[in-house]
Amino acid sequence: xxxxxxxxxxxxxxxxxxxxxxxxxxxxxxxxxxxxxxxxxxxxxxxxxxxxxxxxxxxxxxxxxxxxxxxxxxxxxxxxxxxxxxxxxxxxxxxxxxxxxxxxxxxxxxxxxxxxxxxxxxxxxxxxxxxxxxxxxxxxxxxxxxxxxxxxxxxxxxxxxxxxxxxxxxxxxxxxxxxxxxxxxxxxxxxxxxxxxxxxxxxxxxxxxxxxxxxxxxxxxxxxxxxxxxxxxxxxxxxxxxxxxxxxxxxxxxxxxxxxxxxxxxxxxxxxxxxxxxxxxxxxxxxxxxxxxxxxxxxxxxxxxxxxxxxxxxxxxxxxxxxxxxxxxxxxxxxxxxxxxxxxxxxxxxxxxxxxxxxxxxxxxxxxxxxxxxxxxxxxxxxxxxxxxxxxxxxxxxxxxxxxxxxxxxxxx
Amino acid sequence: xxxxxxxxxxxxxxxxxxxxxxxxxxxxxxxxxxxxxxxxxxxxxxxxxxxxxxxxxxxxxxxxxxxxxxxxxxxxxxxxxxxxxxxxxxxxxxxxxxxxxxxxxxxxxxxxxxxxxxxxxxxxxxxxxxxxxxxxxxxxxxxxxxxxxxxxxxxxxxxxxxxxxxxxxxxxxxxxxxxxxxxxxxxx
Lengths: 413, 188
Prior knowledge:
heterodimer; A: 413 residues; alpha/beta; five-stranded parallel beta sheet; 21% strand; globular; B: 188 residues; alpha+beta; GMP Synthetase, Chain A, domain 3; 2 domains; four-stranded antiparallel beta sheet; two-stranded antiparallel sheet; 29% helix
């Protein structure tokens, strides 16, 4: 058995940012990674995926982006390489291919059972992120056996799917990208659309990420949000790392049929909600509010004049959206569940979950002393789950953690 | 970001504080949030029936309305009936409009928007080939439902549109109509 003051679970951007922060504070620690550094970016994403934020927005603590293409979008495998290089350049103490199987409380910290023996520590940082597992609705149990189904974590490329019609369930970032890619492969796509977040890739000549920064949206903190649960559930915007438009109008223009939220499966038929107009109107209204905030900001900015307000058209709807589709022969042959991701803390044998099995924390500080978490939606700010969010969050959380460790040592003394 | 005036100078007759307090209370008492609504319907004559609505279950106990409400339903004379009440499908449309209208008032109160007038016109299209069994490809129910709100309020058109959107998002009847529900009919 080995002992460290701090163990960090996960060597993605959050875990490495934490390692960076702990190193600066001189805190003894170990980072555990079940696969290679940058793991999920290498093994659980599809081939064509690029980061949703432009390169300039993806600096890591101590290493801002300084490559030749600040406005470009990096393939995720290349980002994983960047993370490996980052870890090597700071000699981060990462133990790869070591899976955390169980964590329980000890008198003075935590015992971690790993695939490579037991490790003990005083403090533990969960940096496995918000997207550890695909979230699949229970209606998936009713899919007939003749229909193949997959998730964005397993899907790699359109040829993984059988020929014929494809139902993509979910119209957030993953769903709209996959719908477009699969339609392009000659498989006719139906896209099931529930509540979603619409944003244009660029507005007034700037990337939307630039406006999210300028308006201060990314730095909105916990205390400014009146319904934190809702803010944490907000779906990822319909964006792609690139210039191809992926909003519902663009998808319909290439022949994708949009239908309402998948409400049920009955007698080998998928049933869709009749509320498509409502979710589209809501998304258009929310986008409009944000773009109005951008317009107001653009009015008071001096310096170089901005491009005119190029607002996207309201979402066009089919005259009478389809309410039912046959599953199986002659109908939908495969389904992609782009219904979101969820964190996976199933390895924690600790009383830290609410009744819905969500980890209880306040700004990354859990209710068991010495336990911390990073990389979740609105952990501290809207920026938190983004690459640019892990730096400030690990800085703040490591401060709390360092105080906790020195307090423990004071008690011991 | 939209800024709202202080809700205290706005009165749409909705006790938002009580609703928000109830939300907080029910969050920590999930069993109290389990409600069962009911109505009892008696045949009178022909297609005329009368439903009585008196009690419901919720907050962990049987509850009663302040009085028993009665709703007659029938069919118009064009259906060779006595027209002793609206048709059941009109009651469904009316329930949808009432649910959304009540929602508009509650959301407006919460957002500090004073309402002056709210009118909802609701229409449902139906092809009688369905219920008459003339064409099995035609469904019995509505092929489409449209609701048009006319709202006079101290707010911008965008804020009024947002009120209506949020009202749909939280509407029980909107959900009942737009999504499938398991229905079990039995005989004693």
